[in-house]
Automatic annotation (TrEMBL):
Organism: Strombidium inclinatum
PANTHER family linked to this entry: CELL CYCLE SERINE_THREONINE-PROTEIN KINASE CDC5_MSD2, SERINE/THREONINE-PROTEIN KINASE PLK
Single annotated GO MF: protein serine/threonine kinase activity
Name of the molecule in the record: Protein kinase domain-containing protein
Keyword Cytoplasm: no
């Protein structure tokens, strides 16, 4: 019931609106606003990778949701592609507060080991020192990497191996995937093992990755299936920033069933 208590108290444009709940003898059912365009997880399955302009737009909306939650002493603790839904206007709606927690006071540390393997922060796995808002920032870094590269940075076929890579901060940027210096720098700053060394949400907003071009408020629904055109990109990105052209991004094929592990 903690999930219901937290979620129903949240009112933000980038958080899925809590509508109602009911229960029977076996289950509790939660009704949220309808998000017509599924989640970023399904989007990435279709598109394989996103253009950095799209990633900036989604990152901005995720940060707006997190700033609201953190200002109300709420840590989401399960930030991942599958919990980031898209409504009919292609706006991000953060959902699934099943692992969320509310701090009783500023500076409190939580010690419950929880999260989704590919997105979980190292301090959660270590457990001893506890964790706080920085776990959501870590997960945001994983999301940015995943959307640009096409798969999570620490992913392996074995959960224990994934946890070892997270604890040892073992990840790399593949040579065959184009990525800007700004994106690489921001991801590297976020995915640091020391939570106190990670940038704050406001610092991420001021990073060159987020400030070196105009970010669209919303994206067209055509991007659910196809990469943005060069003409669309040039509306927002200065000339000379075409390191990641639309033609360099993979196009999804009909009925492809490649699954991205979460």
């Amino acid at each position: 019931m903690s999930e219901i208590k937290i979620h129903r108290s949240v009112k933000n444009p980038n958080v899925a609106q809590f509508m109602h709940f009911f229960e029977d003898s076996e289950c509790v059912y939660i009704l949220l606003e309808l998000c017509h365009n599924q989640s970023l997880n399904e989007l990435l399955k279709r598109r394989k990778r996103l253009h950095e302009l799209e990633v900036k737009c989604y990152t901005l909306q995720i940060i707006q949701a997190l700033k609201y939650l953190h200002s109300h002493r709420i840590i989401h603790r399960d930030l991942k592609l599958g919990n980031l839904f898209l409504n009919d206007k292609m706006s991000i709606k953060l959902g699934d507060f099943g692992l969320a927690t509310k701090l009783d006071f500023e500076g409190e540390k939580k010690r419950t080991i929880c999260g989704t393997p590919n997105y979980i922060a190292p301090e959660v796995l270590e457990g001893r020192a506890g964790h706080s808002y920085e776990v959501d920032i870590w997960s945001l870094g994983v999301i940015i990497y995943t959307l640009i590269i096409g798969k999570p940075p620490f992913e392996t076929t074995d959960v224990k191996a994934t946890y070892r890579r997270i604890k040892m901060n073992q990840y790399s940027f593949p040579d065959h995937v184009p990525i800007s210096d700004e994106a690489r720098d921001l991801i590297s700053r976020i995915l640091t093992g020391d939570p106190t060394a990670r940038p704050t949400l406001d610092q991420i907003l001021m990073h060159p990755f987020m400030t070196n071009c105009q970010i669209p408020k919303l994206l067209p629904q055509s991007l659910l299936a196809c990469p943005p055109s060069g003409q669309y990109i040039r509306q927002f990105m200065p000339q000379g920033m075409g390191y990641q052209s639309a033609t360099s991004l993979p196009r999804s094929l009909p009925n492809q069933q490649d699954a991205l592990r979460q």
